[in-house]
């Protein structure tokens, strides 16, 4: 661990602690909004679109590198606005509803947050490259092998920061939701309000990270000058001269087309507008990638494309959607505190898994890692599906009530959680080590834009599954208490089984395709 690593880690920690509001958001939507599972999956698609803009934003960071802090401040402003909207909906719902429907406010908050996070994340990604020093304390160049190990450490710590933030917020939620089963409705709302007030620290942490980066640079410069180096030479050693980054108008122009195209379709009621946006977005991102890939050698291009394809398919798998969580809340009686405990176990063991699997990540190819994770994740999803068909009732009868639904959920979460971040670390380390000095943010964002579109594809798939298998939870009018939508989980079992089979077959097929072609994986 080095002090120079801390600035990007602080931005990552800010992203990690966004989970502070996740459980509140789940119960707010379930109890106070009548939005369908398919609509929420569609909203997830729109929330994922900003992440597809990481490539042009990365290029923009390269162009305005000296002023990158401005993007972090802008992102912090959007995050604050999103949280203040949710605070208003909880504390002053009637006043907010008089201005705009509550559902519209929620959608606005849900879309502001990812834009804010992506602005900060694209700066943090490039800062991880800069955070790895080029020279030792005396100004002597570091060995390339040592720098490669430091890049791996930096990327591992980045995942640790994100997951560590998740551990902190899970601990906070366990404490804040203590005794939730005896809380009145107003007490629950007061707790929700407190959580969103605490969440306002998130944008502040990222701003402090940027400020610390400036301090570290000035400290290193003063140390080299104090060691006898002229100021100009000290600056050159800390940041060697690189080729000046010139605007890539293909990237900037294509990105402008992408934004106009997305906003035009998004604000109109065109049939299949999400599918059109996804197809158009993919075409634009692939075109922008093709322009940037020209700076790479032939083998490096094949390696980059093969790696991107495997990660894309792996991340594009649809899930069951919010209906599974609603079922756990209604049928298995999982309350806010128990969901917080599951999050705490998951985050803590994921953090531990990053260290336990460090050699595994370093020594295995991404294709091997994806196959391993696909098989293990599919196996560990079976107990959750089994509980839908009564597995927990049978195990509780056999064990005298010990192995009940909560026991199964705890064990399954403990086994599955360390696997979540493993696939990302070797990919990120390879990108950081391969990034050209004058295009570090752009190069980092190339892979991110493509693979983040996979999450949008996964949300589309989730929407389709929820349209095919209809799942509803009970929705009551907050004033009259009248039931407007009845709970119906009869099709949830087939929904989960279908998601399992798709998530098992397609990633294995993608790896097989790479093995049968000229493409390679990192």
TrEMBL record:
<keyword id="KW-0812">Transmembrane</keyword>
<dbReference type="Pfam" id="PF03092">
    <property type="entry name" value="BT1"/>
</dbReference>
<feature type="transmembrane region" description="Helical">
    <location>
        <begin position="103"/>
        <end position="119"/>
    </location>
</feature>
<keyword id="KW-0472">Membrane</keyword>
<feature type="transmembrane region" description="Helical">
    <location>
        <begin position="9"/>
        <end position="29"/>
    </location>
</feature>
<keyword id="KW-0813">Transport</keyword>
<feature type="transmembrane region" description="Helical">
    <location>
        <begin position="192"/>
        <end position="213"/>
    </location>
</feature>
<feature type="transmembrane region" description="Helical">
    <location>
        <begin position="157"/>
        <end position="180"/>
    </location>
</feature>
<feature type="transmembrane region" description="Helical">
    <location>
        <begin position="366"/>
        <end position="389"/>
    </location>
</feature>
<feature type="transmembrane region" description="Helical">
    <location>
        <begin position="249"/>
        <end position="270"/>
    </location>
</feature>
<feature type="transmembrane region" description="Helical">
    <location>
        <begin position="35"/>
        <end position="57"/>
    </location>
</feature>
<protein>
    <submittedName>
        <fullName>Folate/biopterin family MFS transporter</fullName>
    </submittedName>
</protein>
<dbReference type="InterPro" id="IPR039309">
    <property type="entry name" value="BT1"/>
</dbReference>
<feature type="transmembrane region" description="Helical">
    <location>
        <begin position="300"/>
        <end position="318"/>
    </location>
</feature>
<feature type="transmembrane region" description="Helical">
    <location>
        <begin position="492"/>
        <end position="514"/>
    </location>
</feature>
<feature type="transmembrane region" description="Helical">
    <location>
        <begin position="69"/>
        <end position="91"/>
    </location>
</feature>
<feature type="transmembrane region" description="Helical">
    <location>
        <begin position="276"/>
        <end position="293"/>
    </location>
</feature>
<dbReference type="GO" id="GO:0016020">
    <property type="term" value="C:membrane"/>
</dbReference>
<feature type="transmembrane region" description="Helical">
    <location>
        <begin position="338"/>
        <end position="357"/>
    </location>
</feature>
<keyword id="KW-1133">Transmembrane helix</keyword>
């Amino acid at each position: 661990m080095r002090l120079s690593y801390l600035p990007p880690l602080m931005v990552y920690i800010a992203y990690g602690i966004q989970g502070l509001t996740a459980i509140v958001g789940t119960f707010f939507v379930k109890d106070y909004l009548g939005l369908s599972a398919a609509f929420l999956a569609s909203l997830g698609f729109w929330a994922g679109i900003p992440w597809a803009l990481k490539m042009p934003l990365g290029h923009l960071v390269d162009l305005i590198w000296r002023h990158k802090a401005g993007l972090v401040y802008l992102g912090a402003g959007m995050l604050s606005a999103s949280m203040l909207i949710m605070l208003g909906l909880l504390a002053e719902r009637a006043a907010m509803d008089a201005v705009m429907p509550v559902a519209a406010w929620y959608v606005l908050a849900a879309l502001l947050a990812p834009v804010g996070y992506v602005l900060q994340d694209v700066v943090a990604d490039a800062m991880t490259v800069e955070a790895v020093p080029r020279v030792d304390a005396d100004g002597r160049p570091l060995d390339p092998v040592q720098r490669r190990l430091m890049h791996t450490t930096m990327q591992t710590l980045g995942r640790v920061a994100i997951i560590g933030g998740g551990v902190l917020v899970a601990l906070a939620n366990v404490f804040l939701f203590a005794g939730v089963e005896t809380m009145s409705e107003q007490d629950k709302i007061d707790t929700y309000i407190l959580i969103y007030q605490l969440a306002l620290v998130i944008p502040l942490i990222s701003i402090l990270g940027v400020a610390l980066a400036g301090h570290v640079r000035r400290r290193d410069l003063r140390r080299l000058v104090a060691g006898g180096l002229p100021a100009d030479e000290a600056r050159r050693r800390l940041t060697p001269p690189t080729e000046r980054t010139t605007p890539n108008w293909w990237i900037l122009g294509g990105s402008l087309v992408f934004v106009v195209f997305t906003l035009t379709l998004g604000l109109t009621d065109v049939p299949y507008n999400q599918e059109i946006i996804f197809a158009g977005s993919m075409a634009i991102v692939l075109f922008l990638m093709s322009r940037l890939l020209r700076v790479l050698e032939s083998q490096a291009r094949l390696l980059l494309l093969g790696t991107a394809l495997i990660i894309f398919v792996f991340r594009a798998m649809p899930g069951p959607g919010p209906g599974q969580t609603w079922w756990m809340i209604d049928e298995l009686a999982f309350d806010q505190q128990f969901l917080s405990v599951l999050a705490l176990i998951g985050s803590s063991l994921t953090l531990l898994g990053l260290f336990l699997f460090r050699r595994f990540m370093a020594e295995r190819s991404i294709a091997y890692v994806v196959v391993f994770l696909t098989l293990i994740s599919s196996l560990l999803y079976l107990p959750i599906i089994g509980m839908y068909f009564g597995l927990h009732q049978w195990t509780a009868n056999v064990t005298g009530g010990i192995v009940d639904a909560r026991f199964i959920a705890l064990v399954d979460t403990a086994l599955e959680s360390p696997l979540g971040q493993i696939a990302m670390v070797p990919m990120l380390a390879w990108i950081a080590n391969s990034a050209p000095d004058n295009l570090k943010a752009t190069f980092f964002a190339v892979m991110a834009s493509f693979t983040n579109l996979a999450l949008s594809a996964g949300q589309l798939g989730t929407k389709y599954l929820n349209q095919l298998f209809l799942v509803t939870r009970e929705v009551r009018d907050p004033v009259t208490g009248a039931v407007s939508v009845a709970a119906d989980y009869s099709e949830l079992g087939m929904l989960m089984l279908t998601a399992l089979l798709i998530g098992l077959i397609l990633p294995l097929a993608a790896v097989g395709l790479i093995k049968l072609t000229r493409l390679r994986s990192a």
